[in-house]
């Protein structure tokens, strides 16, 4: 069996596809591409594939990850070529790496995510200063909906989950932020919640043009390493 | 933000709705063309949700059939879910086709498939959302032609004032003929009415405006006659002679979101020879035509390859009647088992033979099996010609229980012609006998968690069946029967489900309705009716008000017994099965006499005379 990690793009055409639907889409694309995917043992076998992290609906990405297990050898290049021919518009594999034995799953590795967030402000503002003022707070408490508890809200402090926010680019009213936030099973900050906190802090002075996930990282010895570089064979 | 309408819909509207995946339009195998190179734009409309519409085989066939012609661009349109409709209306967005997001009011054709009567208000709503005049008479030069087909088109009359023309029967050959006539019409720059005249010459096309209906003082129909020369007095449905030579697409759209039937539907044959007297499908889809094993294997291979689906469902009205079912199942299983492609066999009459087959197919799950005795006593089953005996049923469920099944569903109808309370009690009696049979299996051997589910639907008399002259049972009577069954089905291990009779009552109105009902549909829509077949949106009071406002008594269509000589609203439609045959079947029904399966020997229904050299297999 061969463990492989695929890095893929989720473009505007597929940004409204939910996590579960994306899973089914990949399963069918893998079938069409005749990728020799391994099936789990047991009563109800299913194809071995797992995503690093669910992406919010409406968010695009150039840094998604999918781990698959193959029964037979297939070169990275061959796999990418065949799978890309079988994927719908808006999904594209951009990297495939074979993992070493006993590699941790992408899902277990991921700790942080990088987002590029494009906002359009209603008036000219000093974005650098606003972000600096936002980040200097010791705690940033926002109400968060809990889907498992009937969407009741609970207050959470998101400040510890924000690693970096930089103003990447500003042109008149358009501001692009570069953010690194917690992502994974231990702590997870969705970009929409971050933007709600920003809105609460700044007032309702911007609209969201695009949220794009750029990369997913593992924290290896206090350093953020893109998942495609971890546990390579 | 400066966005064109297409981008605006995508970027601004979709984030506001619950399931944006319904409106994306770029699913695998969807067809996208450059409108600049297109002569005919066709909006294929299914008047229900994406999930329901995408599960429909006919749409899959005709979508690719039309798109295989390079100058035609056929796109899909479903009824926007009410959350989407709300934002569309708020933002002034009109009904658009999924693939191009272009407004369908600018298309050449807006075609609806009529699968069930209670989707009609969605047609009105979709026309309104599209900004297309709702009445055929209001449409002028430049408006699209609103057309319709599908099983409910065999009684087209309730939609006669709304639809410009109907296409009756199977579309595989007829649709291209209509398109060819349209090309000629368009290239000559003729008037709107001239197209209607031209298509009315195509067999199976019905232009309601070319027929006048007159009425008797008692509101029954006096006559239905063409009001001009050159249109046929009777419109004959179209039938594909050889299914093996008929068009079948080598790909199907693979949706992103979960739909009702998310699998390959392999149509193994059309038609049914059983002759159940309540069943409209069994009459209107005649004659029986099978696809050969070779053809089915070839289709399955192409569809698996192009879709990536992990399941094939054998589709037909009665799967067990396919002459080479065992061979087909064996072939498909041996070929695809290693690829982990599952096979499902719906519409299978369960007996010991088919049970064995089913077990071979479903290796693990032993959850549910469905049986449809339809009526509770042998007398009533003879009336409806459902040739299943109590002994058959007990043997079949017995075989299932013996091999470990513990979930059984039994489907019945209440309100069938000649039904008495004794017949209703027979339903409970059968349910109990089935449960008793389970307990006869020794404890260690039987499956755990027995559940016998008994469901009753309310009978709706349909056109082109032997019961087309029969009154529907009253709402009060059906409710009383349901209450009685609730009392009788309280034993542990039995579950009773029933349907509210109000929806079936309205279905009965439109199933056998005439063209005076078009205005009721529009009035009901004005009063807010849509998605009527969805519990949460069904508004019976609004419907009653719509009838009242239009001065129409719905009872006229439901609980009235028709005289055998009465001119029925579908008198000018010929589905092949003759009135003579239906009458004879009706009379036999009332005497409790059964009719054999016509596979054994012809029963003279008339379908083989529909077209020259027509044969049944």
From TrEMBL, chain A:
InterPro entries: DUF2344 (IPR018768)
Highest rank taxon of the organism: Bacteria
Limits of the DUF2344 domain: 4-191
Pfam families: DUF2344 (PF10105)
Protein name according to UniProt: Radical SAM-linked protein
Species lineage: Bacteria, Bacillati, Bacillota, Clostridia, Lutisporales
Automatic annotation (TrEMBL), chain B:
SUPFAM superfamilies from the UniProt entry: Radical SAM enzymes
GO molecular function term, any single one: catalytic activity
Domain Radical SAM core: start-end pairs: 258-495
PROSITE patterns with a match to the protein in the record: RADICAL_SAM (PS51918)
NCBIfam families found in the cross-reference section: rSAM_fuse_unch (TIGR03960)
Protein name per Swiss-Prot or TrEMBL: Radical SAM family uncharacterized protein
